[in-house]
Structure formats: C-alpha cells, structure tokens
Amino acid sequence: ASQTGPTTTAIAQRASELRQLLQQASYAYYVLDQPVMEDAVYDRLYRELQDLEQQHPSLITPDSPTQRVGEQPATGFESVQHRIPLYSLENAFDAEELRSWDQRWRKLAPDVPADAGYVCELKIDGAAIALSYENGLLVRGATRGDGTRGEEITANLRTIKSIPLRLQTDQPPEWLEVRGEAFLSLTRFKQLNTEREKHGEALFANPRNAAAGTLRQLDPRIVAERQLDFFAYSIQGPNDWANLDQAASLDCLQSLGFRVEPHRQTCPTLAEVEQYFSDWDARRRDLPYLTDGVVVKLQSRRLQDELGFTQKFPRWAIALKYPADEAPTQLQHVTVQV
Ligand SMILES: CC(C)(CNC(=O)c1ccc(Oc2ccccc2)cc1)c1ccc2c(N)nc(N)nc2n1
Question: FRET partner for 151 with CA separation of 20 to 30 A, picked from 116, 142, 282, 293?
Fold first, then answer.
C-alpha cells in the first residue's frame, strides 16, 4: 500500500536524530554544565520524540530520554550481588594518620618507584552507588548495601540526568562497572526542606540522608522530581579497560559521558596532598555540594594491583576526613520517624 505520510524509515531516522539531539543537549546541560539548547527547543523536540514513540512503539530504545522516568512505582527492591565488591575507605583524621598509612603501604610494596605519586579527589557527602553497563547500555543500578550485596534501584537511577543511559563510545566493552556518589546539591537540599516545611513534613537532616532516602523511594517520579546528581569515581571493565592509572581512569569516565568532580589533582608527594587538603578545607564551603574529606589514592595502577585490598579496604587509598561541622541546623540526635 502506498505510504501517505513519510516512510517508516524516514520516521525511524527522525526518531534517531531526535534522540541524538536530546542526548547531546542533556549531556551538555547536566554533565558539562554548558547548556547548548534553549529549554523551549528541548521541550518541543522531546514532545516530538514522545509523539513518534507513541505512534510507533517499536521505535522506543532503552537509552531514549523518554525512558528515564518510569510510571510504575516498585513494590520493593530486589537484593543483588555486585559483580565487583564496593569497598569502603579507611579513614585518617590528621596528617599523622595519613603519614602512617603512607608508611604502611610503602612497607608492603616491594619496589616503590621514587616518583610514585598520589591523586587527591574531593570526597562528596552523598550515597555510594554501583552502575552496570552491558555493551554500552545501562542495565542495572544498585545501592552500596553491605559492599557485597545492595538493593536494585535501576529505575530510580535512570532518573538522574547526569547518569548516561548509554556510554559515549562506539566501541563499548562487553561489561563495565562504574561507581560513584549520588548526591543532592545544597541549593536543591534547601529547596526540598523549604517545600517540606511548607507542607508540615519532616525535614531532611542533611543532604546525604536526603540523597540516600530518595534512592530508596519506590516511585521513580518522586526520585525524578528531587533532582539528584552523580559524580563517578571508579571504573572497572574487561582487561584493556582496567589497567588505567588513577588520573587516566577519571579522564576515561569523563570521556564515556560521566560527571567527574572537577577539582581532582595529582600530587607528587604527601606534602602536596596535605597542602591540597588544607586549601580545600577553606574553599569547600563555596562548593555547591557538601564534602566530608579528601580521598587520597596512589596514581600508579601497578602499585594499586600489587597492594590490593584487605577484607574491607583498598591498601592504596585513604579518606582524609575534615572535622565534623559544628552543631547542624536541626537537632541531629532527634530522629523523626517518617
Ligand atoms: C577506591 C574506592 C574503594 C573505589 N574502588 C575502586 O576504585 C576499585 C578499584 C579497583 C578494583 O579492582 C577490583 C576488581 C575486581 C575485584 C576486586 C577488585 C575495585 C575497586 C573508593 C571508595 C569511595 C570513594 C569515595 N567516596 N570518593 C572517591 N572520590 N573515591 C572513592 N573511591
């Protein structure tokens, strides 16, 4: 039969073009923080894609921007085993404990090159999560849980605009594990608490609790409206994807389309690490999100692999913590049952 309107291939092409335009605009806005498209234009193109997908459901792809916010609340969360454990970090509370960590790993490493350096990353005060990609597509997301098993919250994580639904590479690995911190910006945290106060609801005690609580919402639409954000900090994949030095692994995460906290710094010696820590103790209050320390990691992948992990921690990393802030705004010890 003759097609009255555009041919189905033309429609499929338009849908693919719209997906690409919308993904690029969303990446620029949420990951690069450099908008390239007017909101009104974005909304018009988004509605055009939605209409095309409604008329031709076979055109819907899992990485379509229209597939971020599911309409179905979950009835509960499945417990899932992480492909790779999510390790926690040993804590150091002052320069002396940092130095003792440094002595300990140096004793364990057989031949430490003289130029063995460190990478410092700001430690974001949010909720750790695990993302699993297969052939470039986001197939699963989970909470940290106990490090070995977590709760499957894929539908909720899909609503976070800075989490790519598809990796930005035309040669995606068979599997890829990405870990990072889901968090609420301070502005968003205050807006949410102002809203909750207006409706007589219990306030969130702090941005970390707010993020963790949001991730466990059964309804993805509620998660979407909270506007969580995400910084990636670790990548594991098949062999050639897995032997990057620390700084290179963060650059790789950025190239794949993830947001990575921009103030990371390579520090040749521990003196520079301590300098970075004290610089940021002053500057961190100007950041749009809460931090609770600096994560110090060995730059060298070979050293990381040589040193490995204890039951709980990597031997090649440590969290250098800031002192807990003075009395928080709300009574911290009074927990309100919601
Ligand atoms: C160091 C690691 C525990 C991530 N984990 C890894 O980088 C990592 C590296 C090789 C691995 O290799 C393995 C592969 C297979 C099996 C076992 C280990 C596993 C995890 C960690 C934990 C918390 C962090 C945090 N709050 N903020 C920042 N900025 N960084 C953080 N980094």
Answer: 293
Classify the complex by whether its ipTM is higher than 0.85, answering yes or no: yes
CB 215 within 8 A of CB 198: no
What is the Å distance from ligand 1's center to 82 Cα? 13
- Identify the pLDDT of residue 338: 40
- Indicate which atom in ligand 1 lies nearest the CA of residue 122: 29
How far is 110 from 305, CA to CA, in rounded Å? 12
Distance (Å) from CA 157 to ligand 1 centroid: 20
pLDDT at 240 (0 to 100): 75
For ligand 1, what atom is nearest to the CA of residue 249? 7
Residues with a catalytic annotation lie at 123
Mutate to test the pocket of ligand 1, among 82, 132, 236, 297 (most ligand atoms within 8 A of CB): 236
Task: Check residue 336 and give left, alpha or beta (phi > 0: left; psi -120 to 50: alpha).
Answer: beta
Q: Which residues of the chain have pLDDT under 50?
A: 1, 329-330, 332, 334-338
The Cα 199–Cα 191 span in angstroms is 13
**pLDDT tens digit string along 128-156?**
999 999 999 999 999 999 999 999 999 99
Report the run of H or E that residue 14 belongs to, with start and end: helix 8-30
Residue to substitute in 83, 87, 122 for testing ligand 1 pocket (most ligand atoms within 8 angstroms of CB): 87
Task: Give me the pLDDT at residue 4, please.
Answer: 63
Residue nearest to atom 8 of ligand 1 (CA): 234
Spacing of C-alpha 106 from chain mean position:
31
